[in-house]
Design brief:
The protein has about 200 residues and is α/β, with parallel strands linked by helices. It has one domain: Alpha-Beta Complex (Maf protein). Strands 1, 2, 3, 4, 5, 6 and 7 form a seven-stranded mixed beta sheet that branches. Strand 1, helix 1 and strand 2 form a beta-alpha-beta unit. Helix 1 packs across helix 5 and helix 4 crosses helix 5. The chain starts with a strand and ends with a helix.
């Protein structure tokens, strides 16, 4: 079954492809000939994910899903949240984004945070479904690890002593916010299209 993942982010595509596997074939935006940035004009992760997925459905009539991911830091009033990718500015610079979070936490004892992913799925006739994955954790003072992307080098998930950036993709996928949201997506898709045979 062919589904478009509404992203041109190579890291995200690799993670999703590893998680979904057969019988689903994932195609990217570039596979559809879509090279423009998708609109992200909403004030919630769910809203942005739905806006992106709806855009692909409206323009290409392809079954698709889109995600939006944010880091919510308790002591920063849940920032950067929906603005995580461009927290330090429109350049979407991971290093600058991380540094802004670390600077904002200077002198603060509360370093609780959570990483959250919302996935919007658009099916036949524009039918909509939402899936949410959350991982609680905390922000460390100095980045650690070379793997992953985004805020992975400064986020330690609850119950772990390593950052996401110190884990390989398989380890991260088992416990990550995106992994949890995708597992909900997988369960839904398999029940809908595999078990029922539709």
């Amino acid at each position: 079954m062919k589904l478009c993942f509404a992203s041109n982010n190579a890291h995200k595509l690799q993670e999703i492809q590893q998680l979904l596997g057969p019988p689903f074939e994932i195609v990217s935006l570039s596979d559809l000939g879509c090279t423009q940035e998708l609109p992200e004009e909403q004030d919630t992760l769910e809203g942005n994910a739905l806006q992106k997925a709806t855009y692909v459905w409206d323009h290409y009539q392809v079954l698709c899903f889109a995600d939006d991911t944010g880091l919510e830091v308790e002591a920063l009033h849940n920032e950067p949240g929906v603005y995580s990718a461009r927290y330090a500015g429109p350049a979407r610079d991971n290093q600058a984004n991380m540094q802004k979070v670390l600077t904002g936490l200077e002198g603060k004892e509360n370093r609780k945070a959570r990483s959250r992913t919302s996935i919007a799925l658009i099916l036949e006739e524009g039918e909509q479904h939402l899936f949410d994955g959350i991982v609680e954790g905390h922000i460390i003072e100095t980045p650690r690890g070379e793997k992953g992307f985004g805020y992975d080098p400064i986020f330690v998930p609850e119950g772990q002593d390593r950052t996401f950036a110190e884990m390989d993709s398989q380890e991260k996928n088992q416990i990550s916010h995106r992994g949890r949201a995708v597992q909900q997506l997988i369960s839904f898709l398999r029940h809908r299209y595999v078990q029922t045979g539709t």
